């Protein structure tokens, strides 16, 4: 791989929106596939991808690599700090759903997947639920400090 190809995924503080959308689409497709096929193991795929992205960065996220080319290149960006928070939420929802499904607590699994799916669909439509939650959390913490 050339140096230019690798550097295209280098993002210091901001991540281009088309890459964010690629990750969101990968999560959505995986959740839909898991529910339609009734196969819990399918949830391990987006969970592993999110853990890889959390640990190694966006450059190694397979959803970003495979699906971001489907979106037009964007000059709009999202903050890495917000994306890390959203990534953590996705990991928590996916892990909760997978564990609940394996423990035969399907209501908990479906509730977790419904919340994750709602957040992902809203994000793909332009409203970031995780960003809103993060802002409220920061606001709460700031008020508490005063």
From TrEMBL:
The keyword NADP does not apply. Keywords: Membrane, Transmembrane, Transmembrane helix. Residues 16-139 form the DUF4395 domain. The chain crosses the membrane at residues 82-103, 109-135. Signal peptide: none annotated. It holds the Pfam family DUF4395. The keyword Lipoprotein does not apply. This is DUF4395 domain-containing protein.
């Amino acid at each position: 791989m050339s140096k230019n190809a690798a550097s295209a995924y280098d993002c210091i503080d901001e991540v281009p929106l088309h890459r964010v959308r690629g990750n969101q689409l990968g999560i959505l497709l995986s959740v839909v596939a898991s529910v339609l096929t009734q196969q819990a193991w399918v949830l391990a795929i987006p969970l592993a991808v999110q853990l890889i992205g959390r640990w190694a960065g966006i450059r190694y996220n397979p959803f970003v690599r495979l699906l971001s080319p489907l979106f037009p290149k964007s000059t709009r960006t999202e903050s890495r700090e917000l994306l890390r928070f959203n990534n953590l939420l996705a990991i928590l929802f996916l892990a909760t759903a997978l564990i609940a499904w394996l423990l035969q607590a399907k209501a908990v699994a479906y509730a977790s997947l419904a919340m994750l799916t709602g957040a992902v669909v809203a994000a793909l439509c332009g409203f970031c639920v995780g960003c809103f939650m993060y802002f409220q959390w920061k606001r709460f913490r700031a008020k508490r400090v005063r």
